[in-house]
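S.,

As promised, the uracil run. Input:
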Amino acid sequence: MRLDKYLAHAGLGTRSEVKKIIRSGRVLLNGVLAEKAEEKVLDSSVVIVDGVEISLETYEYFMLNKPTGVVSATQDQTDRTVVDLITCPHHKELFPVGRLDKDTEGLLLLTDNGALAHQLLSPAKHVSKTYLVYAEGKLTKGDVMLLENGVDIGDETLTRPAKAANLSYYEILGQEGKSVQTRLELTITEGRYHQIKRMFAKIGKPVQYLKRLSMGGLELDASLSPGEFRRLTEKEINSIVNRSA
Ligand code: URA
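Predicted complex:
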């Protein structure tokens, strides 16, 4: 495989970004400074970028349907973590790519590929994430427009444009009688702290249930119940690696 393709697959950036990394003299191929993007990487080759060995084969990728009640961390004093849920034998030190709140469910990627995680989480990459949201009350057209165009959630800038889909309303019977709930899917391209909850709080329709359905090219496997996980397929790995690069 060409060196630039290899580095892009490892999650270090786009083909043009990794070409720059090569040109700037940061890459050693078998101990020798690599100069050209087209140099060949063989199975036996050793590739080092900024002093760190870069490998394609050794990374592990798991998709978890995160249940509520566990925290998106590698360790925690009081709560179970998402890493604790990956109970199959693995030798790598996994970490979650990004965070879901303790009470949020859904797609969480766990890997030991730090370069890829960095790409997927980079604010500059605008990786899209789709959430299933149940919110209190009936969202108006104006609410949807606000969510889509950008909401002032108290940060320096409005939220970036978002996309709402599959909106529907439900009448629910609670302790205080009947009320209406809105269900919709919202795709955002940022990952600000409590972003979805803050967006809906701002329009006065608090989130009642939140689940992440997709991230970049990766979709939550609908056959995974909360708490279940599986390894990503080759196709899925390629989809996130290429999308983030
Ligand atoms: N937005 C939130 O408010 N919470 C999450 O867990 C994810 C996105």
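The longest helix spans residues 234-244. The mean pLDDT is 92.

- D.
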